[in-house]
Specification:
Blueprint lengths: L6 H4 E6 L2 H14 L4 H7 L7 E5 L3 E5 L5 E5 L6 E2 L1 H6 L6 E4 L4 H4 L5 E2 H5 L14 E6 L7 E5 L3 H7 L3 E8 L3 H6 L5
Parallel strand pairs: 6-8
Antiparallel strand pairs: 1-2, 2-3, 3-4, 4-5, 7-10, 8-9, 9-10
GO molecular function, one term: RNA binding
Protein name: PUA domain-containing protein
Family: Belongs to the MCTS1 family.
């Protein structure tokens, strides 16, 4: 999704959000990620304003008061953390682990195949439903290498073991990764 994301071409506008809208977004984040409550003040402080950055293809980015992108929203998802946010707070999303052979493909933006999630070295978290957003971990690595959306439930991936299991939304070194490392003003 963010493979060829370019700050100059893909961002269509940024707006400072009113406090009532910010409050609604914080509430929605707490509903979607109940474990974030003790950390939400660090991520998006109440005393500071944050921005909503609109992009092409119905993508929205949420940047904190310093301009660092913290969350993203696509056409098919609610706000989900960016990889940089996920690396600081890894408990926000359920984890699916791929084997070492899948790493180079995922880092090129490919969807995650079912065999990459069920082979030796992979760990498939049970009871994750279809359309859930998950962190993609790699065998032998500490941090997530991608964020994806389940195309099948965990049980379906285990039983079918063919085709695409997870759509790759955001991965290390894609356009959003590079955008998130600098602040947007």
């Amino acid at each position: 999704m963010f493979k060829k994301f370019d700050e100059k071409e893909d961002i269509t506008g940024a707006t400072q959000l009113k406090s009532s809208v910010q409050k609604g977004i914080r509430k929605k984040l707490l509903e979607n990620f109940p474990h974030i409550e003790p950390y939400l003040e660090d991520i998006l402080p109440k005393k500071e304003n944050f921005k909503l950055i609109k992009c092409k293809d119905h993508v929205e980015l949420l940047a904190d008061h310093t301009g660092v992108v913290r969350f993203m929203k696509t056409r098919n998802t609610d706000f989900v953390p960016t990889l940089r946010t996920l690396h600081k707070y890894p408990f926000l999303l359920p984890h699916q682990q791929v084997d070492k052979g899948a790493i180079k493909f995922i880092l090129n933006g490919s969807a995650i195949m079912c065999p990459g999630l069920t082979s030796p070295g992979a760990k498939l978290t049970a009871t994750v439903p279809k359309d859930a957003v998950v962190a993609i971990m790699a065998e032998g690595k500490e941090h997530a290498l991608a964020i994806g959306q389940m195309l099948m439930s965990s049980e379906e991936i285990q039983s079918v073991n063919k085709g695409y299991g997870v759509e790759n939304i955001h991965y290390l070194n894609d356009g959003l990764w590079h955008l998130a490392e600098k602040s947007i003003n």
